[in-house]
């Protein structure tokens, strides 16, 4: 497994690019808060006020609350990345170079290392989960597909998106919840892991609920099931309480920054434009999961078999399959369902570990002709990810399509994958800088 982690780290860092402050956005607070916690013991960005001011960039992702400069986004992603920052900060502190200015400058590279490390760990955890159910050969093959034929590569491993932390925490939670005989300690640890996902992104509350149901539904007598569920809930209390306390203290509401915009985009859940968003996340040419990662179809089929039968075959897949379906409905009906300036269906990265786990079961049932077709899907999926880590954003597609990004996601006239590749092909750079 160490080899697998090292391979992932090497490939994820191999495009040799990071995101400059001027080109960054949602992930900027996540790259700085770990340093602030380690150096000053608080999840604020006060130490970097002068650095932001001197940079002269727009900082829509920051808020001035109670005299402190805080992130609009939840604390979870920064907490997930914190272990990666510890040795970096320790080195800076021991060498006498731990000033805010130096940490601010180094955060660009540390963010990339943290994102690649979390994603690499998610791949290792996925391998360990599959190994419990299949041979080492199947587990290794599935892990390589998970690592390099999905948005775990082009999205999760490249920046500290909220989805990076959610996918890592979910992979950890799935590994724990598939433990043999599911001991109570594993349930408590899974509750902690999935509460980390929830503190990174509120929609991950669906995954936390799925974990609770999985603990309840896994085989055992009634007393054991209740004990597992209580252990899971207790495991989730510390991080959830911390997140709620931070939100209440700085924002005056339990939802934090998101509470400031609640109701701004309200409309019918199944209004026509919202239904187009759900379809867009699945099949649109420039954001569709089945366009960017067609091998995910195996996962969808696997989850459908779990949820669509009268008696669930696997309590973990059934619970998380239902949560994944609801997640699609929620993010698909969000007004900015295309995920802003990003590559592929970013809002579905959260559930890739579930799709991958379900996809392995589908693969095992395929005959030879179907597996050959699946291999074509895997090849295409890998090539798309290569496009994302090397070619994107060469054509500046997001900026050119910013007037109506929802319509642009469906555009056949302006295929992002092709336009980025064509623009990249005439450059003399290994990878396109942001």
Textual characterization of the structure:
The protein has helices spanning 2-13, 28-40, 49-55, 76-94, 100-131, 136-148, 151-156, 162-177, 184-200, 205-217, 222-251, 272-283, 289-292, 296-307, 315-332, 352-365, 368-391, 397-400, 405-408, 416-425, and strands at residues 62-65, 68-71. The chain has 434 residues and is an all-alpha fold. The chain has one domain (2-425). It has a two-stranded antiparallel sheet. The model has no long low-confidence stretch (mean pLDDT 94).
List keywords for this structure.
434 residues, mainly alpha, two-stranded antiparallel ribbon, 20 helices, 2% strand
Write the layout of secondary structure elements.
Layout: H1 2-13, H2 28-40, H3 49-55, E1 62-65, E2 68-71, H4 76-94, H5 100-131, H6 136-148, H7 151-156, H8 162-177, H9 184-200, H10 205-217, H11 222-251, H12 272-283, H13 289-292, H14 296-307, H15 315-332, H16 352-365, H17 368-391, H18 397-400, H19 405-408, H20 416-425
Helix pairs in contact: 1-5, 2-4, 2-5, 4-5, 4-8, 4-9, 5-6, 5-8, 6-16, 8-9, 8-10, 9-10, 9-11, 10-11, 10-15, 12-15, 14-15, 14-16, 15-16, 17-20
